[in-house]
Protein backbone atom coordinates (compact mmCIF):
# COMPACT_ATOMS: atom_id res chain seq x y z
CA UNK A 1 0.00 0.00 0.00
CA UNK A 2 1.27 3.46 -0.93
CA UNK A 3 2.16 6.12 1.61
CA UNK A 4 -0.29 8.48 -0.11
CA UNK A 5 -3.95 8.26 -1.08
CA UNK A 6 -5.32 10.68 -3.67
CA UNK A 7 -9.05 11.41 -3.98
CA UNK A 8 -10.00 12.22 -7.57
CA UNK A 9 -13.27 13.88 -8.53
CA UNK A 10 -14.69 14.34 -12.04
CA UNK A 11 -17.52 16.61 -10.96
CA UNK A 12 -21.08 17.02 -12.24
CA UNK A 13 -23.05 14.51 -14.29
CA UNK A 14 -24.05 14.16 -17.92
CA UNK A 15 -27.41 15.79 -17.22
CA UNK A 16 -26.27 18.50 -14.80
CA UNK A 17 -27.91 21.73 -15.92
CA UNK A 18 -25.66 24.23 -17.65
CA UNK A 19 -22.52 22.11 -17.65
CA UNK A 20 -22.18 21.90 -21.43
CA UNK A 21 -21.06 23.81 -24.49
CA UNK A 22 -23.31 25.85 -26.75
CA UNK A 23 -24.24 24.04 -30.00
CA UNK A 24 -21.01 23.23 -31.82
CA UNK A 25 -20.56 24.68 -35.33
CA UNK A 26 -19.00 21.63 -36.99
CA UNK A 27 -18.13 17.97 -36.43
CA UNK A 28 -15.68 17.49 -33.54
CA UNK A 29 -14.42 14.04 -32.54
CA UNK A 30 -17.57 12.36 -33.84
CA UNK A 31 -19.96 14.93 -32.40
CA UNK A 32 -22.39 16.23 -35.03
CA UNK A 33 -22.75 19.89 -35.93
CA UNK A 34 -25.41 21.43 -33.68
CA UNK A 35 -24.89 18.97 -30.83
CA UNK A 36 -23.37 19.87 -27.46
CA UNK A 37 -20.47 18.60 -25.37
CA UNK A 38 -21.16 17.91 -21.71
CA UNK A 39 -18.48 18.96 -19.27
CA UNK A 40 -18.50 15.39 -17.94
CA UNK A 41 -17.20 14.22 -21.32
CA UNK A 42 -13.95 15.97 -20.47
CA UNK A 43 -13.95 15.55 -16.70
CA UNK A 44 -14.57 11.79 -16.53
CA UNK A 45 -11.88 10.50 -18.93
CA UNK A 46 -9.37 13.06 -17.68
CA UNK A 47 -9.95 11.98 -14.08
CA UNK A 48 -9.57 8.34 -15.15
CA UNK A 49 -6.32 9.12 -16.99
CA UNK A 50 -5.13 10.91 -13.84
CA UNK A 51 -5.92 7.87 -11.73
CA UNK A 52 -3.92 5.68 -14.15
CA UNK A 53 -0.97 8.09 -14.00
CA UNK A 54 -1.05 8.29 -10.21
CA UNK A 55 -1.14 4.50 -9.86
CA UNK A 56 1.81 4.23 -12.24
CA UNK A 57 3.71 6.58 -9.93
CA UNK A 58 2.90 4.50 -6.88
CA UNK A 59 -0.05 6.37 -5.38
CA UNK A 60 -3.24 4.82 -4.10
CA UNK A 61 -6.41 6.47 -5.41
CA UNK A 62 -10.13 6.71 -4.82
CA UNK A 63 -12.55 7.92 -7.47
CA UNK A 64 -15.22 9.82 -5.54
CA UNK A 65 -17.47 10.39 -8.57
CA UNK A 66 -17.33 7.36 -10.86
CA UNK A 67 -19.83 6.88 -13.67
CA UNK A 68 -21.81 9.58 -15.44
CA UNK A 69 -24.51 10.50 -12.92
CA UNK A 70 -24.19 13.55 -10.68
CA UNK A 71 -22.81 12.43 -7.32
CA UNK A 72 -23.78 14.87 -4.57
CA UNK A 73 -21.09 17.21 -3.30
CA UNK A 74 -21.56 15.88 0.23
CA UNK A 75 -21.09 12.29 -0.90
CA UNK A 76 -17.89 13.22 -2.73
CA UNK A 77 -16.18 15.03 0.13
CA UNK A 78 -17.48 12.51 2.68
CA UNK A 79 -15.90 9.65 0.70
CA UNK A 80 -12.57 11.47 0.68
CA UNK A 81 -12.77 12.32 4.38
CA UNK A 82 -13.78 8.80 5.41
CA UNK A 83 -10.71 7.23 3.80
CA UNK A 84 -8.39 9.97 5.09
CA UNK A 85 -7.19 10.90 1.61
CA UNK A 86 -4.01 12.97 1.56
CA UNK A 87 -5.24 15.38 -1.12
CA UNK A 88 -8.42 15.96 -3.14
CA UNK A 89 -8.26 16.90 -6.84
CA UNK A 90 -11.36 17.80 -8.87
CA UNK A 91 -11.09 18.07 -12.68
CA UNK A 92 -13.32 20.57 -14.50
CA UNK A 93 -13.79 22.79 -17.57
CA UNK A 94 -14.83 26.41 -17.16
CA UNK A 95 -17.60 28.51 -18.72
CA UNK A 96 -18.46 32.17 -18.84
CA UNK A 97 -22.11 32.56 -19.86
CA UNK A 98 -22.97 29.50 -22.00
CA UNK A 99 -22.70 31.31 -25.31
CA UNK A 100 -19.68 31.43 -27.55
CA UNK A 101 -17.24 34.08 -26.37
CA UNK A 102 -13.55 34.86 -25.99
CA UNK A 103 -12.94 34.15 -22.28
CA UNK A 104 -10.04 31.71 -22.08
CA UNK A 105 -7.32 30.11 -20.03
CA UNK A 106 -6.57 27.83 -17.11
CA UNK A 107 -7.16 28.42 -13.42
CA UNK A 108 -6.93 26.39 -10.24
CA UNK A 109 -9.46 27.07 -7.50
CA UNK A 110 -9.05 26.69 -3.75
CA UNK A 111 -11.25 27.48 -0.76
CA UNK A 112 -11.06 30.96 0.69
CA UNK A 113 -10.05 29.13 3.88
CA UNK A 114 -7.29 27.14 2.16
CA UNK A 115 -4.23 26.07 4.12
CA UNK A 116 -0.68 26.83 3.06
CA UNK A 117 -0.38 23.21 1.94
CA UNK A 118 -3.39 23.63 -0.33
CA UNK A 119 -1.95 26.83 -1.79
CA UNK A 120 1.34 25.08 -2.52
CA UNK A 121 -0.43 22.18 -4.25
CA UNK A 122 -2.56 24.59 -6.29
CA UNK A 123 0.45 26.59 -7.48
CA UNK A 124 2.28 23.44 -8.55
CA UNK A 125 -0.70 22.07 -10.47
CA UNK A 126 -1.50 25.42 -12.09
CA UNK A 127 2.09 25.80 -13.29
CA UNK A 128 2.19 22.32 -14.84
CA UNK A 129 -1.20 22.68 -16.57
CA UNK A 130 -0.26 26.03 -18.13
CA UNK A 131 3.07 24.59 -19.23
CA UNK A 132 1.42 21.53 -20.78
CA UNK A 133 -1.45 23.26 -22.57
CA UNK A 134 0.23 26.61 -23.34
CA UNK A 135 -2.93 28.49 -22.47
CA UNK A 136 -3.43 31.76 -20.66
CA UNK A 137 -2.44 31.54 -16.99
CA UNK A 138 -5.44 32.79 -15.00
CA UNK A 139 -3.68 31.88 -11.78
CA UNK A 140 -4.79 30.33 -8.52
CA UNK A 141 -8.06 31.81 -7.25
CA UNK A 142 -10.24 31.28 -4.22
CA UNK A 143 -13.75 30.01 -4.79
CA UNK A 144 -15.11 33.40 -3.75
CA UNK A 145 -12.84 35.19 -6.23
CA UNK A 146 -13.83 32.82 -9.00
CA UNK A 147 -17.57 32.40 -8.50
CA UNK A 148 -18.64 34.34 -5.43
CA UNK A 149 -19.59 31.12 -3.64
CA UNK A 150 -17.98 28.65 -1.27
CA UNK A 151 -17.34 25.37 -3.10
CA UNK A 152 -18.36 22.48 -0.85
CA UNK A 153 -15.73 19.98 -2.01
CA UNK A 154 -13.02 22.54 -1.28
CA UNK A 155 -14.34 23.84 2.02
CA UNK A 156 -15.51 20.57 3.61
CA UNK A 157 -12.62 18.28 2.77
CA UNK A 158 -10.22 17.61 5.62
CA UNK A 159 -7.20 17.49 3.33
CA UNK A 160 -5.66 19.93 0.82
CA UNK A 161 -8.22 20.25 -1.98
CA UNK A 162 -8.10 21.89 -5.39
CA UNK A 163 -10.36 22.22 -8.41
CA UNK A 164 -8.81 22.71 -11.86
CA UNK A 165 -10.42 24.46 -14.83
CA UNK A 166 -8.46 23.50 -17.96
CA UNK A 167 -10.18 25.81 -20.42
CA UNK A 168 -13.51 27.38 -21.33
CA UNK A 169 -16.20 25.25 -22.93
CA UNK A 170 -17.87 28.32 -24.38
CA UNK A 171 -14.67 29.34 -26.17
CA UNK A 172 -14.58 27.70 -29.62
CA UNK A 173 -10.86 26.96 -29.67
CA UNK A 174 -10.75 25.59 -26.14
CA UNK A 175 -13.98 23.61 -26.47
CA UNK A 176 -12.48 21.68 -29.39
CA UNK A 177 -10.01 19.93 -27.09
CA UNK A 178 -12.54 18.72 -24.53
CA UNK A 179 -13.06 15.41 -26.37
CA UNK A 180 -9.45 15.01 -27.53
CA UNK A 181 -7.88 12.03 -25.73
CA UNK A 182 -4.40 13.48 -26.31
CA UNK A 183 -5.41 16.69 -24.53
CA UNK A 184 -7.10 14.75 -21.73
CA UNK A 185 -4.01 12.60 -21.20
CA UNK A 186 -1.70 15.63 -21.29
CA UNK A 187 -3.89 17.29 -18.65
CA UNK A 188 -3.79 14.20 -16.46
CA UNK A 189 -0.04 13.75 -16.77
CA UNK A 190 0.62 17.42 -15.99
CA UNK A 191 -1.53 17.14 -12.88
CA UNK A 192 0.30 13.96 -11.88
CA UNK A 193 3.69 15.64 -12.35
CA UNK A 194 2.62 18.40 -9.98
CA UNK A 195 1.30 15.93 -7.41
CA UNK A 196 4.59 14.03 -7.54
CA UNK A 197 6.45 17.29 -6.91
CA UNK A 198 4.13 18.10 -4.02
CA UNK A 199 4.88 14.78 -2.30
CA UNK A 200 8.51 14.59 -3.48
CA UNK A 201 7.75 11.35 -5.32
CA UNK A 202 9.47 10.38 -8.58
CA UNK A 203 7.27 10.88 -11.63
CA UNK A 204 7.19 7.78 -13.84
CA UNK A 205 6.52 8.55 -17.49
CA UNK A 206 4.01 6.42 -19.41
CA UNK A 207 5.48 3.71 -21.64
Summary keywords:
single chain, 207 residues, alpha/beta, Aminopeptidase, six-stranded mixed sheet, MurNAc-LAA_cat, N-acetylmuramoyl-L-alanine amidase activity, hydrolase, N-acetylmuramoyl_amidase_3
Give the SSE layout:
Blueprint: E1 5-9, H1 40-56, E2 60-63, H2 73-82, E3 87-94, E4 106-110, H3 116-133, E5 137-142, H4 143-147, H5 152-155, E6 161-168, H6 172-175, H7 181-199
Parallel strand pairs: 1-2, 1-3, 3-6, 4-5
Antiparallel strand pairs: 4-6
Kindly summarize this structure in a few lines:
Pfam families: Amidase_3. It is built from 7 helices and 6 strands, in the order E-H-E-H-E-E-H-E-H-H-E-H-H.
Largest sheet report? 6 strands, mixed
Please report the distance between the alpha carbons of the first and last residues. 23 Å
**What is the level 1 CATH name?**
Alpha Beta
**CATH architecture designation:** 3-Layer(aba) Sandwich
Gyration radius, rounded: 16 Å
Strand residues, percent: 15-25%
Query: What is the succession of H and E elements?
Result: EHEHEEHEHHEHH
Shape: globular
Question: Would you identify the regions where 5 or more consecutive residues have pLDDT less than 50?
Answer: none
Total number of helices: 7
* Oligomeric composition of the shown chains: single chain
How is the CATH topology named?
Aminopeptidase
Q: Helical amount among residues, as a percent range?
A: 25-40%
CATH superfamily label: Zn-dependent exopeptidases
Protein name: N-acetylmuramoyl-L-alanine amidase
Keywords: Hydrolase
Pfam family, one: Amidase_3
Domain MurNAc-LAA: 77-196
